[in-house]
Amino acid sequence: MNKISLPWTERTFYKRDCVSIIPNSREPHRCIPGCQICQQLVRCCCGRLIKEHRSFAGKSVTSLADDQTQSESWTVEKDTVKSPTNAYGTIDFQGGSQGCKAKYVRLSCDSKIEDILHLMVKEWRMQLPKLLISVHGGTQKFDLHPRIKDALSKGFIKAAGTTRAWILTGGMNNGVAEHIGDALKDHASHLCHKVCTIGITPWGLIDGRQDLLGRNVEAPYQTLRNPLSKLHILNRVHSHFILVDDGTVGQYGADIRIRQELESRISLQQIHARTGKRIPIVALILEGGPNTIITVFDYLQQTPPVPVVVCEGSGRAADLLVYVYKQTESQG
Predict the structure, then answer these.
(1) What strands lie across the sheet with 308-310, from one edge to the other?
(2) Nearest Cα residue to 106 out of 195, 231, 216
(3) Element (H, E) at 15
(4) Using H for helix, E for strand and C for coil, what is the string for 17-62?
(5) Dihedral angle, C-alpha 115, 119, 122, 124, nearest 10 °
(6) Average pLDDT over residues 124-145
(7) DSSP track, 67-103
(8) Which of 115, 217, 264, 324 would disulfide-bridge 89, Cβ 3.0–4.6 Å?
(9) Using CA atoms, how far apart are residues 174 and 168, in angstroms rounded to an integer?
(10) Is pLDDT of 120 > 80?
């Protein structure tokens, strides 16, 4: 099919596929020459099993390893190829008491930010917000004290609703994104036209991502998954998903650049052309680890600094940040 005849989304956005086979030296499995069982267990550096690659074609793992130099490492730029996206449309979440739907697109990690913003505003018809709330914190399951849950459900939701906010999260139904989803759940009916909750998620971390394949489709998506899976389901309370593909499976980080640059671009948009006032950003921190602390530092280093709201009592990184702040304040 000629590229010019493709729909705008497929002309603009791409998926990525690993085309090199570089056995991961960190994998615990060691291949015995000729052993078919070992052949099934070895993974490429992209996270997929060797046999899942289209270019595998029955080669032995030992011959594949011999083809690679010891110093060679897997990279997105060198070892993946792009082709028009094959996953976009509307997610129809299954299994809940209420029907929930969300717009979504799978796109490459090097997509142009202006194209993503065009998709959101022109194609998805999202109204620009008066406030952008970027939520960061733990990506694994953690508990919140009822006091913090109540504060999220009341204060956070009120602030988001009155400002017609966009809320950015990691989009998965675990960790901080799940808690934000829970806070929004009870208010979904009257907030649906006021608040957009946007999940920016690595494509390769999604459990059941095969259900999302299709061009401009309404994709039924089951939210009950294998609890032993290392992948994650999407949170059903989100209204939009940007699924970032760097060609890897089961690995974090594909979404980082897209999210950072999208936030910066949104902050340059004007709320009122007459006044020149731009969209403000606020970061919200719940729990989290070392990467959360780095994220907070990056926000504070911006010009002007991005305000950061840290939920004391949510645990780990959040509590450490509060402690350091209080110590600094008490010492002048």
Answers:
(1) 214-222, 87-94, 100-108, 240-245, 196-202, 166-169, 132-137, 281-286, 308-310
(2) 216
(3) strand 14-18
(4) EECCCCECCCCCCCCCCCCHHHHHHCEECCCCEHHHCCCCCCCCHH
(5) -170
(6) 94
(7) HS-TT----HHHHEEEEE--EEEEEEEESSSS-EEEE
(8) 217
(9) 15
(10) yes
Distance in angstroms (rounded) separating the CA atoms of residues 226 and 229: 5
* Burial (0-12, 13-18, 19+ Cβ within 10 Å), 238: buried
Residue 219's closest CA among 231, 230, 228, 206? Answer: 206
Interacting residues of 168 by C-beta distance below 8 A, sequence separation 6+ = 132, 133, 134, 135, 198, 200, 259, 262, 263
Q: How many residues does the chain have?
A: 332
- Tell me the per-residue pLDDT of 54-84, one tens digit each, with 9 for 90 and over: 766 555 554 455 554 444 689 999 999 999 9
Instruction: Look at residue 191 in the predicted model and tell me its pLDDT.
Output: 61
Q: Give the pLDDT confidence score for residue 266 in this predicted structure.
A: 96
DSSP 150-171: HHIIIIIHHHHHHTT-EEEE--
CA proximity to 9, closest of 103, 88, 92, 111: 88
Find tokens 């969300």 and name the residue.
102
pLDDT 10s digits, 10-44: 999 999 999 988 888 776 555 555 555 555 678 89
Token code pair at residue 9: 């989304």
Could you identify the residue written with the tokens 């083809």?
Answer: 67
